[in-house]
From TrEMBL:
GO molecular function terms noted in the UniProt entry: iron-sulfur cluster binding; oxidoreductase activity
InterPro entries to which the protein is assigned, alphabetical: 2Fe-2S-bd_N (IPR042204), 2Fe-2S_ferredoxin-like_sf (IPR036010), 2Fe-2S_ferredoxin-type (IPR001041)
Record organism: Paraburkholderia megapolitana
Pfam short name (any one): Fer2_4
Name of protein: 2Fe-2S iron-sulfur cluster binding domain-containing protein
Record keywords: Oxidoreductase
Keyword Coiled coil carried by entry: no
Gene3D superfamilies: 2Fe-2S iron-sulphur cluster binding domain, sarcosine oxidase, alpha subunit, N-terminal domain
Chain segments carrying region Disordered: 98-124
Keyword Oxidoreductase (UniProt): yes
Amino acid sequence: MTSRPLFRVLEPTAPAVADATIHIWFNDQPLGVPGGRSVAAALLAAGIQRFRATPVSGAPRAPYCMMGACFECLVEIDGIPSRQSCLVMVKDGMRIRSQEGARDLPPPADFRLPQSAEGNAHGH
Ligand code: FES
Protein backbone atom coordinates (compact mmCIF):
# COMPACT_ATOMS: atom_id res chain seq x y z
CA MET A 1 0.00 0.00 0.00
CA THR A 2 1.35 3.41 -0.93
CA SER A 3 0.71 6.37 1.29
CA ARG A 4 -0.42 9.68 -0.04
CA PRO A 5 0.06 12.98 1.76
CA LEU A 6 -2.99 14.30 3.59
CA PHE A 7 -2.61 17.75 2.11
CA ARG A 8 -1.74 18.99 -1.33
CA VAL A 9 -0.42 22.52 -1.82
CA LEU A 10 -2.54 24.54 -4.21
CA GLU A 11 -0.89 26.53 -6.97
CA PRO A 12 0.62 29.47 -5.06
CA THR A 13 -0.12 33.01 -6.21
CA ALA A 14 3.26 34.26 -5.01
CA PRO A 15 5.54 31.22 -4.76
CA ALA A 16 8.58 33.04 -3.39
CA VAL A 17 6.64 34.35 -0.39
CA ALA A 18 4.22 31.48 0.17
CA ASP A 19 6.81 28.74 0.39
CA ALA A 20 9.77 30.58 1.89
CA THR A 21 10.91 28.78 5.03
CA ILE A 22 10.54 30.71 8.25
CA HIS A 23 11.75 29.75 11.70
CA ILE A 24 9.49 29.28 14.70
CA TRP A 25 9.62 27.49 18.03
CA PHE A 26 7.26 24.67 18.99
CA ASN A 27 7.47 23.45 22.58
CA ASP A 28 10.93 25.04 22.83
CA GLN A 29 12.24 23.21 19.75
CA PRO A 30 13.34 25.23 16.70
CA LEU A 31 11.36 24.39 13.60
CA GLY A 32 11.62 25.48 9.96
CA VAL A 33 8.15 25.74 8.41
CA PRO A 34 6.72 27.09 5.17
CA GLY A 35 5.44 30.65 5.52
CA GLY A 36 2.43 32.31 3.96
CA ARG A 37 -0.13 30.10 5.71
CA SER A 38 -1.81 29.59 9.06
CA VAL A 39 0.05 28.36 12.12
CA ALA A 40 -1.93 25.10 11.92
CA ALA A 41 -1.06 24.52 8.27
CA ALA A 42 2.60 25.33 8.91
CA LEU A 43 2.82 22.95 11.88
CA LEU A 44 1.06 20.17 9.98
CA ALA A 45 3.43 20.68 7.03
CA ALA A 46 6.32 20.26 9.48
CA GLY A 47 4.89 16.94 10.72
CA ILE A 48 3.43 18.10 14.04
CA GLN A 49 0.43 15.90 14.87
CA ARG A 50 -0.34 16.78 18.50
CA PHE A 51 -1.48 20.35 19.11
CA ARG A 52 -3.20 20.04 22.46
CA ALA A 53 -4.50 17.61 25.10
CA THR A 54 -8.08 17.42 26.31
CA PRO A 55 -8.72 18.77 29.83
CA VAL A 56 -10.37 15.57 31.12
CA SER A 57 -8.56 12.56 29.66
CA GLY A 58 -5.44 14.19 28.20
CA ALA A 59 -6.19 12.68 24.79
CA PRO A 60 -4.11 14.19 21.98
CA ARG A 61 -5.91 16.49 19.55
CA ALA A 62 -5.03 18.09 16.21
CA PRO A 63 -6.71 20.47 13.76
CA TYR A 64 -9.87 19.14 12.17
CA CYS A 65 -11.90 21.78 10.33
CA MET A 66 -9.15 24.31 9.49
CA MET A 67 -11.76 27.08 9.44
CA GLY A 68 -12.36 28.15 13.03
CA ALA A 69 -15.32 25.93 13.92
CA CYS A 70 -14.04 22.94 15.93
CA PHE A 71 -11.43 24.43 18.33
CA GLU A 72 -9.29 21.28 18.06
CA CYS A 73 -6.29 23.37 17.01
CA LEU A 74 -5.88 25.41 20.21
CA VAL A 75 -2.30 26.29 21.08
CA GLU A 76 -0.44 28.96 23.00
CA ILE A 77 1.09 31.55 20.68
CA ASP A 78 3.62 34.03 22.05
CA GLY A 79 2.36 33.48 25.59
CA ILE A 80 -1.35 33.81 24.80
CA PRO A 81 -3.29 30.56 25.41
CA SER A 82 -6.30 29.21 23.52
CA ARG A 83 -5.43 30.64 20.12
CA GLN A 84 -7.09 28.94 17.16
CA SER A 85 -3.98 28.12 15.16
CA CYS A 86 -5.98 27.67 11.95
CA LEU A 87 -6.96 31.36 12.07
CA VAL A 88 -3.56 32.90 12.84
CA MET A 89 -0.95 33.51 10.13
CA VAL A 90 2.43 32.06 10.99
CA LYS A 91 5.22 34.60 11.47
CA ASP A 92 8.96 34.25 11.78
CA GLY A 93 10.10 33.91 15.40
CA MET A 94 6.72 32.84 16.82
CA ARG A 95 6.89 30.83 20.02
CA ILE A 96 4.16 28.22 20.01
CA ARG A 97 3.36 25.70 22.70
CA SER A 98 0.91 22.84 22.73
CA GLN A 99 -2.01 23.49 25.04
CA GLU A 100 -2.16 20.96 27.84
CA GLY A 101 -5.65 20.68 29.30
CA ALA A 102 -7.72 23.72 30.22
CA ARG A 103 -6.07 27.08 30.19
CA ASP A 104 -5.69 29.02 33.40
CA LEU A 105 -8.01 31.97 33.76
CA PRO A 106 -6.82 34.92 35.81
CA PRO A 107 -9.33 36.01 38.44
CA PRO A 108 -11.20 39.21 37.55
CA ALA A 109 -9.66 42.36 39.01
CA ASP A 110 -12.51 42.76 41.53
CA PHE A 111 -12.59 39.07 42.51
CA ARG A 112 -12.83 38.39 46.25
CA LEU A 113 -13.86 35.24 48.08
CA PRO A 114 -17.03 35.65 50.17
CA GLN A 115 -16.28 36.05 53.89
CA SER A 116 -17.70 32.59 54.67
CA ALA A 117 -15.50 30.91 52.04
CA GLU A 118 -12.15 32.26 53.22
CA GLY A 119 -11.68 29.68 55.97
CA ASN A 120 -12.54 26.01 55.93
CA ALA A 121 -15.79 24.49 57.16
CA HIS A 122 -14.52 24.66 60.77
CA GLY A 123 -13.59 28.32 60.64
CA HIS A 124 -9.82 27.69 60.36
S1 FES B 1 -9.00 23.42 13.13
FE1 FES B 1 -11.05 23.71 13.73
S2 FES B 1 -11.01 25.62 14.77
FE2 FES B 1 -9.00 25.37 14.04
